[in-house]
Amino acid sequence: MNPVNYLYLAALLFAIGATGVLIRRNAIVVFMCIELMLNACNLALVAFSRMHGNLDGQIIAFFTMVVAAAEVVVGLAIIVSLFRSRHSASVDDASLMKL
Amino acid sequence: MENLIALLVAAPLLGAAVLLCGGRRLDRTGHWIGTVLAAVSFVVGAVLFVDMLGKGPEERTLTQHLFSWIPVEGFQADVAFQLDQLSMTFVLLITGVGSLIHLYSIGYMEHDERRRRFFGYLNLFLAAMLLLVLADNYLLLYVGWEGVGLASYLLIGFWQHKPSAATAAKKAFLVNRVGDMGLSIAIMLMFTTFGTFAFGPVLESTDKTSEGMLTAIALMLLLAACGKSAQVPLQSWLGDAMEGPTPVSALIHAATMVTAGVYLITRSGAIFNGAPDAQLAVVVVGAVTLLFGAIVGCAKDDIKKALAGSTMSQIGYMILAAGLGPVGYAFAIMHLVTHGFFKAGLFLGAGSVMHGMNDEVDMRKYGGLRKYMPVTFVTFGLGYLAIIGLPPFSGFWSKDKIIEAAFAQQSDLRSWIFGGVALLGAGITAYYMTRVMILTFFGEKRWQPAPDPDTAPSVEPGIEVHPGEMPHPHEAPKSMTIPMIVLAFGSVFAGAVFGIGERFVHWLEPVTSFEHPHPVVGVPVITTATIVVLLLGVGLAYLQYGRRPVPVVAPRGSLLTRAARRDLLQDDFNHVVLVRGGEHLTRSLVYLDHSLVDGVVNGTAASVGGLSGRLRRLQNGYARSYAVSMFGGAALLVAATLLMRAV
Amino acid sequence: MSQVVNAGFPLLTATAALPAVGAIATAAVPAGRRVAAKWLALLVSLATLVLAAIVAVRFEPGGDRYQLVESHAWIKDFGVRYELGVDGIAVALIALTAVLIPFIILAGWHDADPLETKSKRWRPTQGFFALILAVEAMVILSFEATDVFLFYIFFEAMLIPMYFLIGGFGDRAHEHGDAAAATQRSYAAVKFLLYNLVGGLIMLAAVIGLYVVAGNFSLQEIAAARANGTLDMATNTERLLFLGFFFAFAVKAPLWPLHTWLPNAMGEATAPVAVLITAVVDKVGTFAMLRFCLQLFPEASKWATPAILVLALISIVYGALLAVGQRDIKRLVAYASISHFGFIIMGIFAMTSQGQSGATLYMVNHGISTAALMLVAGFLISRRGSRLIADYGGVQKVAPVLAGTFLIGGLATLSLPGLAPFVSEFLVLVGTFARYPVIGIIATFGIVLAALYTLVLYQRTMTGPVKPEVAAMPDLRVRELVVVAPLIALLIFLGVYPKPVTDIVNPAVGHTLSDVQQQDPKPEVEAAK
């Protein structure tokens, strides 16, 4: 199978994720979309690794997974504490980061 | 002997320091400390004088170098004294009259709770004035020059709780500062021209520079003299200065400080001799002031202000004489000394009258006082005879010589103009002094009940005044009459002592040089004319004030009288042009500083702030919109990369 | 460049380190021991005065240009050295600083007393005195530094304590709880900081530029290289660098039209801090013009002289006119200071011995005279709780000693002969007149205006009928008299006998003039002796 198809899939997934981040307001969904984008990147990296015949891409993909896992921990903690203080999981309610 | 010179200055300076820093524990003895130290200075002066008389005329100059004052590369200012015949004359006048006035003040200021401080200021004045006449360079002279200005400021404003006194003091200082500006520019010119400002080197090298430079220096010195000696156009402060206690008016604003301008011009004779144009300016200033003061003196009803006008006019005579060059210097100084005696005596007499009249100063409310105050009447009367220049009293000997000298100038036209003015001035002098005499001592009593001190701010404090009480004129205490009697002796005899055999002229000749004047008409003619003119003045005043009852409230008077009452409108001019104009200028500058200078900076800050305010809107806090800009940026980056590849 | 490096006791470092250590110690005094902190600060400042006196005594006027030199490598990669040394001008100004700080501390004795106990750790008093000592340390170091970069660091660093002194401590007696006053004060503090930071930023660019051109930061090496021709600068480079330095110093000095921060800062700060600003900190600006601008950029200095003289002249007349128009006592003194700084800058750039000696003397005398006037004004203000001239009247009657000392301070401000400022003002005028007669004459008008604003101030506050609000005003207390009397004694002493100062200053001025290759104009004729 042509590895380029994996890239197409990765692009598609990335686009879906990006759209989700932009248009959804629920923090959990936004968060999941971010994960989707990360995984799209991972897919692309692995595909590149295959296409170029070295392992660099796969190594980076492992790093990404570790970072993503850490991110999930921190991100979910933020969302939970946000939900506790605001009783909502909408990202638009957390708009205090302005002067 | 020369080491004594510093003691002349040090004694009163010590007095000032002790009295001003000593605090209340000196309240009971302070006036004696001040008087004794003034007398010490006089005694030292007398010792030096006797010593000086024992030497030949050419060896009489003593110098004392104390220390180097401002040593800077190329600039040498020393604290050094020079005592020659001219300085000696002033030292004796200042310390002599000064000591007498200290004595007088003991009685006059007896009830003032701040008498100690008054004596401290008087001593400060003596020290500064002595420094002025003893300095051996112009910069040290400048120190004394401003020092007497400071003492004058403090003493005019001695009764500071009166706003009029505080304002008068400030005015005197400010007008004097304008003059001081002239002196400092003159010193700067001397420094750049001669590289020094010590009397000796400067006055001996005047022939090495151009006439234009000498004229510039001389005109600046004239400006200084105008300020200190109350000459037109800087005369306006002297009338207001009468707000000070009367002894101050007698010492500072009649006998000594105001004559400093004459000293300055005489001392700088070598500069003026080389600058005929400046000399003409001096003569013009003297002549104009002579008439100006005399006219003002005719119109004033306030006895002290009438005398102030007279002072201005008499100093006008001196300045006029000093402007004539070697012909006139000696006579200027001689008139200065005789004037010191009779004008101080007249002021002290006026103070005595006020003392007895509940501090009333309006002559229209006097009248018939000769029976109640005989000593004052006689001493004042002798001073009167001296000032109008009746032979053989003091004023005649000096004033007549000045009139003669005024008739002896380069061109006939100038001789006639300035001689005529001097002659006319003698007549007016006789007129206004006769007026003062008649209004005060003759005629019927026009006394008024004492004013309420709360509503009449001109009342001198310290003397018990009960509102509504009629005055009880009485002779002043001994401490006040003795100085008046001594000064009356001076008014009678000083002129003859100086004048006969031209003793005074010969005494000063080594310093000021001397030429005999050659008037356009004969000397006897001028003398006769002078006497005739003064008799006319006396007669006119007698007709106006002696024959008719004097109204207590001044009549409206002619246009000239009204203008003269307002000091010939000079104050009004100053007020409109300088005070108002200055106020507008400063106000608009304050506004501009805030709105323009500060405004530019604040405006920059505001526009930066406004811009950042706009930019801030982009930060709306929605994570999604930040994400959009992130994606947009990434997309742009990718697009740009692709575009670069394609090209 | 051969020079004797002082291998013995590092006297200059000690003179600056003592107040610095004192500042830290004062700040560390526990909250309950306010009085101890005050005494500690006072003792430290007095000990600094002793060290400064030793510096002045050890300094030999006829000796090397820079003495008591200390030199150590600091940042080798950039050629930055820790290099200290003093010439006569610096000695005079260090002495001034060391003399004034004890009086400032004593005058501000109660200025930082907390009105209420906010918390156990609330220690404004300790902070106030520690900040004053910190400023002293930095000012002394900037007078001592002969390395341009080192100087720059202290020149900028002193802004931080000054900012807190202006913004943190106002006239507490009357503005307690007054929000508007606090706003104005923080406005003044921020304005002070911004103006000086902008100046400093431009100077930083010039400092870097200088390094690029010269390759090191040593004042002496660069000046020597400039003098013997081994370091050539393009005309435009030199001018730009000069302007960069000059701008920073002109802000600090302050020169018209960069002056507007001073009236705000002096008006809002307490009187002792106002004295610290104008009498001590601002002197670094004029000092640096003399030391850095003239030595590093002699050609550019001469090129800029006409423009600077005109600005100085405007400062003189403009400052005086604005002082006449003020209604606030402290702002009036501030504008008077602007006028006086005009004289100082004029004297520096007249490039004559009299002008520059006069300007240096002027810095010293202005420090003392402004301190006397401003501190007495502060005592007055603390009694009535108002800075407005119109709120006073007749004080002379109820508090004669206060009025008397105020008058002497005022007379010193108007340069009365016999008091110290006269000597310096006259020297500046003569020095300027010798080369630029017209400018000298116009500047002379300043003396009339000075008399006007001083006497109007005195008349309106001290004379006239006693206002009911001031009727119960107490006269000067012992502590206040201890502050004022020595200052007045100094004013009189230096007015009568300025020789001790001129002897130290004259050789340094000679060196500076030879740097810019200027000679005094000769008198027109040789006077008879």
From TrEMBL, chain A:
Bilayer topology reads: Multi-pass membrane protein
**Transmembrane region(s):** 6-23, 28-48, 60-83
- What superkingdom heads the lineage? Bacteria
Q: Which Pfam families match?
A: Oxidored_q2
Q: What is its EC number?
A: 7.1.1.-
User: Quick check: keyword rRNA-binding in the entry?
Assistant: no
Q: Which UniProt keywords apply?
A: Cell membrane, Membrane, NAD, Oxidoreductase, Quinone, Translocase, Transmembrane, Transmembrane helix, Transport
Q: What is this enzyme's class at the first EC digit? A: translocase
Q: What is its subcellular localisation?
A: Cell membrane; Membrane
Gene Ontology CC terms: NADH dehydrogenase complex; plasma membrane
What terms describe the molecular function in GO for this protein?
NADH dehydrogenase (quinone) (non-electrogenic) activity; quinone binding
Q: Name one GO biological process term.
A: ATP synthesis coupled electron transport
Q: List the catalytic activities from the record.
A: a quinone + NADH + 5 H(+)(in) = a quinol + NAD(+) + 4 H(+)(out)
Q: What does this protein do?
A: NDH-1 shuttles electrons from NADH, via FMN and iron-sulfur (Fe-S) centers, to quinones in the respiratory chain. The immediate electron acceptor for the enzyme in this species is believed to be a menaquinone. Couples the redox reaction to proton translocation (for every two electrons transferred, four hydrogen ions are translocated across the cytoplasmic membrane), and thus conserves the redox energy in a proton gradient.
Q: Which PANTHER family match?
A: NADH DEHYDROGENASE SUBUNIT 4L-RELATED, NADH-UBIQUINONE OXIDOREDUCTASE SUBUNIT ND4L
NCBIfam families tied to this protein: PRK05715.1-2, PRK05715.1-3
Assembly and interactions?
Answer: NDH-1 is composed of 14 different subunits. Subunits NuoA, H, J, K, L, M, N constitute the membrane sector of the complex.
Q: Which family does it belong to?
A: Belongs to the complex I subunit 4L family.
| Name of this protein | NADH-quinone oxidoreductase subunit K
What is this organism's lineage? Bacteria, Bacillati, Actinomycetota, Actinomycetes, Kitasatosporales
UniProtKB/TrEMBL annotation, chain B:
Q: Which InterPro entries match?
A: NADHpl_OxRdtase_5_subgr (IPR018393), ND/Mrp_TM (IPR001750), NU5C-like (IPR003945), Proton_antipo_N (IPR001516)
Nucleotide-binding as a keyword?
no
A GO term from the CC aspect = membrane
Please report the stretch or stretches of sequence annotated as the NADH-Ubiquinone oxidoreductase (complex I) chain 5 N-terminal domain. Answer: 69-119
Show where the NADH:quinone oxidoreductase/Mrp antiporter transmembrane domain sits.
135-417
Biological process terms from the Gene Ontology for this record are: ATP synthesis coupled electron transport; electron transport coupled proton transport
Annotated GO molecular function terms are: NADH dehydrogenase (ubiquinone) activity; NADH dehydrogenase activity
NCBIfam families, alphabetized: NDH_I_L, PRK06590.1
What this protein is called in its record is NADH-quinone oxidoreductase subunit 12
The organism of origin for this protein: Streptomyces jeddahensis
Q: What is the lineage of its organism?
A: Bacteria, Bacillati, Actinomycetota, Actinomycetes, Kitasatosporales
TrEMBL record, chain C:
**Parts forming coiled coils:** none
Entry keywords, A to Z? Membrane, Oxidoreductase, Transmembrane, Transmembrane helix
Q: Name one GO biological process term.
A: ATP synthesis coupled electron transport
Q: Which GO terms describe its cellular component?
A: endomembrane system; membrane
Q: Which family does it belong to?
A: Belongs to the complex I subunit 4 family.
Q: What is the lineage of its organism?
A: Bacteria, Bacillati, Actinomycetota, Actinomycetes, Kitasatosporales
Superkingdom, natural source? Bacteria
Q: What is this protein called?
A: NADH-quinone oxidoreductase subunit M
